[in-house]
């Protein structure tokens, strides 16, 4: 009896000493989304395209639900005995998604999962490799949504990834985001804050913040997109093939891409703003172009008033 009591006390003490894993309370499942032609470019459409390819119907994954995507979706629906209406809803998504986990060989299904995780700020490179970084993002998302933290993108996790909030969908941000201070979306403002914070942390003054914000608005509309001209990525549309971010990760991490633009990132040897001789005395649009090496050096100038207003509000 004494031994039993001592064991019980010991167990209680141990339970008090070992911290519990923080998990959001279980919640009602999100509804499967309805994804169809005519919608703005978005991550759900891009994931659908990756999944169609994973299922054997090769589809360009650009997030634009066009005629080719609809035709391939109808073919998939017919193969599953579903109504071939070319609309992905609650009857189609559960048949289309593919369970993936660390080490999964179905690269297109993994790309679909990574695309969805990026909708919630994972900042993953969509490379189809389900490594430790992707698994950590899955576990974090599952904890946030009150799901079992298995690290496997199962049916329940797919349902949350696809059907939950669209607020931070970076592709949708680009399609529907505002182009004035008062019309910026939540996703755009989150990226604005990241840019100003990263600029301050690098020792940048007010003018540096304005130049960085002018540039990002012209290049990406303050949206952390994974598409652009050729292999351009992220807020500043930096190109891995041009040495901005070998491995691509730094191009899609808002803080690291800002550091790259400034010239304080270890991910690139390309010159950033701080490396440009005399940038302080240049017109801001020309200073931006010296980093970006764009086709249109004066294009950034149109955003200077907006960037100045944003620095007044969000800058340090």
TrEMBL record:
The keyword Heme does not apply. Gene3D superfamilies: PGBD-like superfamily/PGBD. Residues 43-94, 108-161 form the Peptidoglycan binding-like domain. It comes from the Bacteria. Residues 1-28 form the signal peptide. Keywords: Signal. Transmembrane segments: none annotated. This is Peptidoglycan-binding protein.
């Amino acid at each position: 009896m004494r031994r039993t009591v001592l064991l019980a006390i010991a167990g209680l003490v141990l339970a008090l000493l070992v911290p519990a894993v923080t998990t959001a309370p279980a919640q009602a499942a999100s509804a499967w989304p309805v994804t169809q032609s005519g919608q703005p470019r978005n991550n759900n459409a891009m994931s659908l395209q990756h999944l169609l390819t994973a299922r054997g119907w090769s589809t360009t994954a650009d997030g634009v639900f066009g005629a080719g995507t609809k035709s391939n979706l109808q073919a998939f629906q017919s193969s599953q005995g579903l109504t071939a209406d070319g609309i992905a809803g609650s009857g189609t998504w559960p048949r289309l998604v593919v369970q993936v986990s660390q080490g999964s060989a179905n690269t297109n299904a993994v790309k679909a999962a990574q695309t969805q995780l990026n909708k919630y700020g994972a900042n993953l490179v969509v490379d189809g490799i389900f490594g430790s970084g992707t698994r950590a993002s899955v576990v974090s998302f599952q904890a946030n949504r009150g799901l079992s933290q298995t690290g496997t993108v199962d049916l329940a996790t797919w349902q949350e990834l696809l059907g939950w909030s669209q607020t931070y969908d970076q592709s949708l941000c680009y399609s529907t985001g505002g182009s004035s201070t008062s019309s910026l979306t939540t996703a755009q403002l989150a990226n604005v804050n990241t840019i100003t914070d990263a600029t301050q942390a690098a020792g940048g003054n007010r003018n540096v913040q304005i130049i960085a914000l002018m540039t990002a608005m012209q290049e990406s509309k303050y949206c952390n997109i994974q598409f652009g001209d050729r292999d351009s990525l992220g807020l500043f549309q930096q190109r891995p093939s041009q040495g901005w971010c070998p491995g691509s990760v730094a191009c899609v991490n808002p803080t690291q891409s800002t550091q790259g633009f400034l010239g304080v990132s270890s991910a690139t040897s390309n010159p950033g703003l701080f490396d440009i001789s005399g940038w302080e005395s240049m017109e801001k649009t020309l200073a931006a172009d010296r980093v970006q090496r764009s086709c249109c050096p004066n294009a950034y100038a149109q955003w200077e008033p907006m960037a100045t207003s944003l620095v007044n509000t969000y800058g340090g």
